[in-house]
């Protein structure tokens, strides 16, 4: 019983190397932010132990995330809550706009460019590249970053929030009103130079092949004896795998994507599985999630059901 679901959970448990920090960020963004944004470390350990993540690994990963300024601590007596920092929250909220969206954005046919026009120290230059890549920018050469739809003012504000305000004087944001003449290349050629879409398409294909059997099983047996715990664990792995792909995806408008692009299929698949797991997984969080004072945070109704119910593509 539950063969496909149990196989997915078992496959994760059998991994020799697990990026526990990345998984913990997924848990914070998907499960903890809608419930006040903080959790007692002991509660986090209990939530993740069924995935065979031991207490030492979780503690080490959390402390590293604090050092990297993803998380911060709030001491309550002899216990401590952990919460996303302002920068960590902003990073996940940016990802969340893509994770829970119904479709890729429409395009106004104007490329957004950020040119490095001044000298930057090597470390700062790498930090800028990493921060812009996080926001979906592709690179043309070593000093030109490109995106089809980013809000450039928001992008620059994000760099300031990352502590990179000193780099702004070396960066020139602008619009290319006519991308073909401005860039001396067709849109398709520009996309192929700036992003590795074949590798991304392959990743989406693997995601679909991994999770389509899970959805088939959930649809086949409406009374599937799935525990609340397993529903939560599967929900976290689902969003974690999907989020990792979106970190590499510039969310290009459909007009810029190859025919039969698998990204939309993966998006709808993720949403449909998530909807089927949400009620049971929320019950598990009601039971297991608590903060340092022992109380259980109530889920923010405005952050529940974050996948849009009104999605014409899923009808």
From TrEMBL:
Coiled coil: none annotated. Residues 195-286 form the Transcriptional repressor PaaX-like C-terminal domain. Residues 107-165 form the Transcriptional repressor PaaX-like central Cas2-like domain. It comes from the Bacteria. SUPFAM superfamilies: Winged helix' DNA-binding domain. Residues 20-87 form the Transcriptional repressor PaaX-like N-terminal domain. This is Phenylacetic acid degradation operon negative regulatory protein PaaX.
């Amino acid at each position: 019983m539950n063969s496909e679901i149990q196989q997915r959970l078992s496959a994760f448990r059998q991994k020799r190397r697990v990026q526990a920090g990345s998984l913990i960020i997924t848990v914070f963004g998907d499960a903890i932010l809608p419930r006040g944004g903080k959790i007692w470390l002991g509660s986090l350990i209990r939530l993740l132990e069924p995935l065979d993540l031991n207490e030492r690994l979780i503690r080490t990963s959390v402390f590293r995330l604090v050092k990297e300024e993803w998380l911060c601590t709030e001491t309550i007596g002899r216990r401590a809550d952990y919460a996303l920092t302002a920068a960590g929250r902003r990073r996940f909220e940016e990802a969340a706009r893509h994770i829970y969206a119904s479709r890729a954005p429409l395009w106004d046919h104007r490329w957004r460019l950020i040119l490095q026009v001044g000298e930057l120290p090597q470390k700062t230059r790498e930090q800028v590249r990493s921060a812009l890549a996080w926001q979906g920018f592709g690179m043309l050469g070593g000093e030109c970053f490109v995106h089809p739809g980013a809000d450039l003012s928001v992008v620059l504000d994000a760099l300031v929030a990352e502590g990179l305000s000193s780099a702004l004087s070396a960066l020139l944001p602008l619009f290319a009103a006519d991308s073909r003449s401005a860039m001396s290349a067709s849109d398709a050629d520009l996309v192929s130079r700036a992003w590795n879409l074949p590798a991304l398409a392959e990743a989406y294909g693997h995601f679909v092949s991994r999770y389509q059997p899970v959805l088939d099983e959930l649809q086949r047996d409406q009374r599937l004896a799935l525990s609340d715990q397993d529903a939560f664990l599967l929900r976290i792995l689902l969003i974690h795998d999907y989020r990792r792909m979106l970190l590499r995806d510039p969310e290009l408008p459909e007009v810029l994507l190859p025919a039969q692009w698998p990204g939309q299929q993966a998006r709808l698949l993720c949403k449909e599985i998530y909807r089927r797991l949400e009620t049971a997984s929320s019950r598990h969080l009601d039971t297991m999630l608590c903060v340092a004072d022992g109380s259980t945070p109530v889920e923010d109704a405005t952050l529940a059901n974050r996948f849009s119910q009104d999605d014409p593509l899923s009808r």
